[in-house]
RNA sequence: GGUGGGGUUCCCGAGUGGUCAAAGGGAUCAGACUGUAAAUCUGACGGCUCAGCCUUCGGAGGUUCAAAUCCUCCCCCCACCA
């Protein structure tokens, strides 16, 4: 059901720069060229854009969220409608997060036990319970191509004791989710998630234990939760090589364009982040020379596109002055045009990274990437 | 012409003797956002040689230790009645 082909590895011994990999993931709903960025569509929709917009931006796979879709519209609706693909009409690959992150970001509504997580809905306060098995079961109903096992995401800073507890629970739940998935005949695909806080030995331990289970892919979770960027890089650099080389490696919830370049260089194959879509709705646009805040007064009379080197629909058609006007007027079109641009930027960046790896010039690409961004 | 109401910092709008450079909105300006409780949130928003000082509440006078707030006159708006 999932086939990962490692097409090329950057040569060299430089740990930070020489481990980029170019790969291909085949799923029932299509192929994902890696390294890949996956736009986040929590509620079965990448906010503000249509599936056609996503396609034209170059999206190969998008995310959905188990917690959110379970609460609304509910599994009965999605089952009745034939699964999330059929419901949303997104016919390409889908990855669903397990809800583990929500029990971290909505922590005051969640209570962790050995059995699972009992929580209150952020929508109406109703009480619910997720076990690792149930998290997989719901994702099977959603019909995602890649399901994530239920994990315990730890914030920063966290003590070693807290991180250990979260790790142990994450591993135990991964095992239960994995067994449940095996019993069901390994439908779709299930990825395990490495936790361990900002402790290398804990990350090692977690990666080692998960690698002992035959997951089709592995993720690193619990990064970019408030730690300094350098710490995140150290954790990723430490953990990525511990995961099976012949399986996709996914860093969850990351990150900035710089983060993607750095982490792809360390051998990460998949990323997801709300940053391009959310920041677009908040007026921040990504460009090859850095980010710009479109409401800024300096763009009032600016007839140039967001980024003259960008090939997106927005940049092909509209000026900064118009986009600034739309944004400041809260016109709905602003959200769509901004989101199209940011997603295109991210997805195009990944395409460039893939191309550079293929051409054996990832390091040069990285150098140019940093040289371009200085002004705005 | 008569009666009543009102003129507050860019706009709307609180404030009716000191705790007022003046609530609250809006506009404006800037920033943040990393597995989406986010079309959200934060900060600035009279001036300056900035822990203090100066100018400001339609205008001009006055009362008072002290006035956006009280008194007098004037100017201008709004409502209703002629």
SSE layout:
Blueprint: E1 3-9, E2 21-27, E3 30-34, E4 36-39, H1 51-57, E5 62-65, H2 66-71, H3 75-80, H4 83-88, E6 94-97, H5 100-105, E7 110-112, E8 117-120, E9 127-130, H6 132-142, E10 146-148, H7 160-183, E11 190-194, H8 200-211, E12 217-220, H9 229-239, E13 249-251, H10 257-265, E14 270-273, H11 275-281, E15 284-287, E16 290-293, H12 313-317, H13 320-328, H14 332-358, H15 362-372
Parallel strand pairs: 4-14, 5-6, 6-10, 10-11, 11-12, 12-13, 13-14
Antiparallel strand pairs: 1-2, 2-3, 7-8, 8-9, 15-16
Helix pairs in contact: 1-14, 6-7, 7-8, 10-14, 10-15, 11-14, 13-14, 14-15
The protein binds one RNA strand of 82 nucleotides through helix 5, strand 14, helix 11 and helix 14.
Structure characteristics:
globular, eight-stranded parallel sheet, 376 residues, alpha/beta, RNA-binding
Mind explaining what this structure looks like?
By secondary structure, the protein is an alpha/beta fold. 42% of the residues lie in helices and 18% in strands. The strands form four sheets. Strands 4-14-13-12-11-10-6-5 form an eight-stranded parallel β-sheet. Helix 1 runs parallel beside helix 14, helix 7 runs parallel beside helix 8 and helix 11 runs antiparallel to helix 14. The radius of gyration is 20 Å and the shape is globular. The structure holds one RNA strand of 82 nucleotides.
